[in-house]
Design goal:
6-stranded mixed sheet; single chain; L-amino peptidase D-ALA esterase/amidase
Length: 388
């Protein structure tokens, strides 16, 4: 079991089952937990529990009728007094938890984060997956970012509430910087539907702070430490390749471009070259790591985002997208739709495999975005065929 004394003097223990922090003195705690959550000054410990510990199928199962009751049972299993404990749970592994501390002149900030976003990433306004009746929720997919923050300074309740805003914004910034997609829409994720946060202020600290906004030094340290810790936790849990860092399809996939849709498009073009599905997959896997396209994909995705956000119109988007692809494709690119290539050697004659130039006409930004998604998919097929 790992044991660490935090800058606040609080004691952290960690094993595969849970992280438990034993508070060393008077603390003001703001917690999003349903179990002894809210703003409290009577807590003695808090925890982050791994729901899949010891389970071969790694399924999260409710042990009580409500999540609040479930958390209470977890606290009891950990040997904690349920009257003075609060906690969170997650499918993320405790061994991948990340801890960072930074010190300013008269205060410190420590963040501990566990994270997984690959199956439950979402953004505000996405389709909700459950409702509740009498406090009983329907199950949802696991995928949670839990953040524990310890501030070695005394903060009043209002400052703690502002700190929660800064911490949440820092988490969102971390997800933006790994280009984590929403699993429920075509936007970038800002968090997951099950994220939890606990912020602990040391009431015994010699310094009192009133502002945790981004213009304050406390806000600066909160933002930096939390953002960096969350990014490290996401990579530790799921690996660098799990996000958009090294995959074209992960960078553009939130718009519906994946192996399946590209295979369907390839088949609709008459399967030039006569590739089997396995041969197609093998070529696509190699293309997916192309360094040039890795730089291109997020730029193209941002054009689609600008359309979705109504910041540009169809004509401007078409010009931007066309210029971007032409610079990568050279003389083989003349528009958005590849003609059906010959079936002899998989490439076809150059004259038969150039791109046509349809005029992008769309009644809405959404329709224009769908056409530009198809354009990029056809561009990828052209690259697979060696035409561009």
């Amino acid at each position: 079991m790992d044991q660490v004394i935090l800058p606040t003097g609080d004691r952290l223990t960690r094993d595969d089952k849970a992280i438990v922090i034993w508070l060393a003195g008077a603390r003001r705690v703001l917690s999003t937990s349903l179990f002894n959550g809210g703003c409290r000054e009577d807590l003695g410990c808090l925890f982050n529990y791994c729901e899949v510990h010891g389970k071969e199928d790694e399924r999260c199962m409710m042990r009580a009728a409500t999540y609040k009751g479930h958390l209470r049972m977890l606290a009891e299993d950990l040997g904690l007094d349920p009257r003075t404990a609060t906690g969170l749970s997650t499918a993320a592994k405790m061994k991948y938890a990340q801890l960072q501390s930074e010190f300013h002149e008269d205060f410190s900030v420590t963040a501990i984060a566990t994270g997984g976003i690959d199956v439950n990433g979402s953004r505000p306004g996405d389709l909700g997956l459950w409702h509740e009746k009498d406090g009983i929720p329907y199950p949802i997919e696991p995928g949670t970012i839990n953040i524990l923050v310890f501030i070695d300074a005394c903060l009043e309740e209002a400052a703690l509430a502002r700190a929660l805003v800064t911490v949440t914004e820092a988490k969102t910034a971390a997800l933006q910087e790994v280009l984590a997609p929403s699993c429920y829409s075509r936007g970038l994720a800002t968090g997951s539907g099950t994220d939890g946060t606990v912020i602990v202020s040391n009431r015994e600290a010699p310094v009192s702070l009133t502002d945790a906004g981004q213009h304050s030094k406390l806000g600066e340290y909160l933002g930096r430490v939390v953002k960096n810790t969350v990014k490290e936790a996401l990579v530790a849990e799921n690996g660098f390749d799990a996000y958009a860092c090294s995959s074209i399809l992960r960078r553009i996939g939130r718009f519906g471009i994946d192996e399946g849709s590209l295979w369907e498009l390839y088949c609709s073009l008459g399967r030039p070259g006569g590739w089997s599905r396995d041969a197609f997959r093998h070529r696509l896997e190699a293309l997916d790591r192309d360094r040039d396209l890795l730089a291109l994909a997020p730029v193209y995705a941002h054009i689609l985002d600008l359309l979705d956000w109504n910041l540009i119109g169809p004509e401007q988007a078409a010009v931007m997208a066309g210029d971007l692809l032409k610079r990568r494709a050279g003389s083989g690119f003349e528009g958005t739709c590849p003609r059906q290539a010959g079936s002899g050697d998989g490439t076809g004659g150059r004259a038969d495999s150039t791109f046509l130039v349809p005029v992008l006409k769309a009644s809405s930004n959404r329709e224009a975005a769908e056409k530009l998604v198809d354009c990029f998919a056809r561009f990828l097929i052209g690259r697979l065929l060696g035409l561009l």
